[in-house]
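ok trying this again, last paste got cut off
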Amino acid sequence: MPTTATREYEMFEHEIAAAARTTDLLREAAAYRFVREARKARRTSMRSQEPRGRVTGSGARGARSAPRPA
C-alpha cells in the first residue's frame, strides 16, 4: 500500500509542477505581448510626431564610388 500512495503523491507533485510551469509561461507570454504592444504604440506615436519633409542629399551617402579615370 505505501508504494501506491507514494506513486500517487509523486504524480500529484508532478501535476502541480506542470501547472506551475504552465502558469509561468502564460505570465511570461502576457508580459512579452504587453511590451511588444507598448513598443509598437510608441513607434507609431513617434512617427506621427516626425516632421514630414523631403530627404535631402545623396542616396548613396557613405558608399564608395569607383575610382575616377586619370
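PB: full thing came through this time. The mean pLDDT is 82.
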